[in-house]
Amino acid sequence: MTEKIPVVENILSANDALAEQIQARLDQAGVLALNFMASPGGGKTSVILRTVQALMDEVRIGVMDGDIVEIDLRELAALGIPVSLINTGGQCHLDANMVHRALPSMDLDALDLLIIENVGNLICPAAFKLGVHRNVVIASVPEGDDKPYKYPGMFRGADVLLLNKMDLQEYMGFNVDYFRQGVEALNPGVAFFPVSCRTGEGLDAWFAWLRAQLNSRGAAG
Amino acid sequence: MHELGVTQSILEIALRHANQAGAARIREVNLVIGELSSIVDDSVQFYWDMISEGTIAHGAVLTFTRIPATLRCQHCGHEFPLNHHDYACPACGSNKVVVADGEQFYLESIDVDLAEPQPGP
Questions:
Q1: How large is the ipTM?
Q2: Distance, in angstroms, between A58 CA and closest chain B CA?
Q3: Residue B114 and residue A3: Cβ atoms within 8 Å?
């Protein structure tokens, strides 16, 4: 006799439960954690470098990088901050389990801000919660203004969106209004900062946003 | 490539619920996947056949109910499919739209053979 058993359980429920554990651990240590997502070459590492340089005298920052090689981490390590490679073994995204296993490599009690650099990919990382407090999505002008339309899941899940390489806008014919309309439909009111890591344009607004997140967290904790 | 990990999650959930129900065999696993979370394709069945071997789930058929992403116009209320080129409302042209559907990503039900026929009175 065959019978239908109702289940209705999120397919990634195990990942989500582990992500909650990670967030509890971060909260306990008073660490604000960010998940940086972008295409390969979108500027994750550049934004992180700029951000660390701007804020490292104010807050204690650590960076975990989901990658297969340590190239991106060398520049960050040279700044004298704690860094850690989450070796993804070629996976297309980070998941809560990878972060959970790598977390002991960071002394969380010695940090205020933990930056996790996800795998360069606009599809898969959006689906896997890591237990962070904010998802940071970085798009860049050379990728084209149609990205929110091609990869809606990624832009829907962003808590803050940076549009990098604005110094190239005039050469690329990038329509910022079209881009923003796509973002607004998926994610109304999301914080949005056009920036250029090369010229420094717009970065102060992003730093101010991040300081506000850190401050409200300090006040709450 | 992450379908293997996703398939392991599906198998774990299906086996847990089947065991709770005292099932002898899982025949069908019914998944609901919205377009906005469409991070799995039909290769899940291929992985399933490999990793479910030796369990009561081996041989089960995975069914996918795929839910298209739709947007709803906040100006005129029109609901329309997400077309990947333009999110403006096709009825009134407004850009004030919100996601209405397409974010599902869950295991809805399993069809199982129950272990033993219930003993008669």
A1: 0.86
A2: 38
A3: yes
